[in-house]
Amino acid sequence: MNRTPANAFLDIRSVAKAFGGNQVLEDVSVQIAPGEIVGLLGPNGSGKSTLLNVITGFTPADAGSVHFDGRRIDRVAAHRIVRTGMARTFQLPSMPAKMSVMEVAMAAATAHHGVFDTLVGTARARATERAARDKAAHLLQELLLTPVRDLPAAAISGGQKKLLGIVCALMAEPRMLLLDEPTAGVHPNLRRDIVAALQRLNAQGMTLVIVEHDMHFIRDVCTRCVVLDRGSIVASCRPDELASNDRVLQAYLGTAGAKPLATEGA
Ligand SMILES: Nc1ncnc2c1ncn2[C@@H]1O[C@H](COP(=O)(O)OP(=O)(O)OP(=O)(O)O)[C@@H](O)[C@H]1O
Ligand SMILES: [Mg+2]
Questions:
Q1: d(Cα 42, Cα 232) in Å, to the nearest integer?
Q2: Is 3's pLDDT higher than 70?
Q3: Domain boundaries, the chain
Q4: What are the φ/ψ torsions at residue 186 (nearest 5 degrees)?
Q5: Shortest-distance ligand to the CA of residue 26
Q6: Ligand nearest to the Cα of 19, by number
Q7: Which residues surround ligand 2, an ion (CB under 5 A)?
Q8: Do 18 and 54 meet the contact criterion of CB atoms below 8 Å apart?
Q9: Which of 6, 43, 70, 141 has its CA 20 to 30 A from that of 156?
Q10: In what residue span(s) does the ABC transporter domain sit (predicted)?
Q11: CB of 36 closer than 8 Å to CB of 207
């Protein structure tokens, strides 16, 4: 039986998704409590990014439901989901060709809050824009992007695009942040800064879901791991329990003798 935390902040129930004949997610149920840092793991192609896309409104599920903070969001448009307090980053961020790094960060504020269009020219609009600019400058500084803030966003490196994706997500001041492989292609020194930044955000109350292959990162950051294998949840455990979990070993190594694991939260 599925054990649901009484205070689930994100509640994913029996989600299914197929692309043509390819069943990518099957009966996926995950509950996440406020303040958790959950690592979403699984082999390549197991459905992690698809699950993030379903949660954040970028891909419609075929079946099941997603509730966030008590509100059903699985039929809500992606830009509206952001305004409920959930933001995300992308595994392969693409950046507009003609905007600078700073402009992309500012555009994220506009997209998230939708304020500038309606209030252009008013004193309040100017104050809001100033606050957004200060926030963008602060976040760019924190993620070491200040030296490239005036460069075209499309011209920065792959790792820097990942960091800019995090900046854009944080411009929404989300209460829940979902990150799709935030450290892939990022220099190890900077990876430490990202770990510290995520821990700081969590200490301030942000709930995090992180798709990540780097086990050091998982061990350092996550309070719980949920493992997908071929579209189904096969484990929910602490990071230090992963290596002794038969279903996890089977998913990654194809080892025999795996025992059936109960369900998410067991
Ligand atoms: N838009 C789409 N159209 C068709 N098939 C898709 C689409 N998006 C994902 N898939 C398929 O769904 C499966 C799961 O893909 P997904 O990107 O969710 O995996 P993943 O676990 O994130 O993998 P990785 O670790 O490599 O990023 C793959 O077989 C992929 O080809
Ligand atoms: Mg992926």
A1: 10
A2: no
A3: 10-253
A4: -100, 140
A5: 1
A6: 1
A7: 48-49, 91
A8: no
A9: 43
A10: 10-255
A11: yes
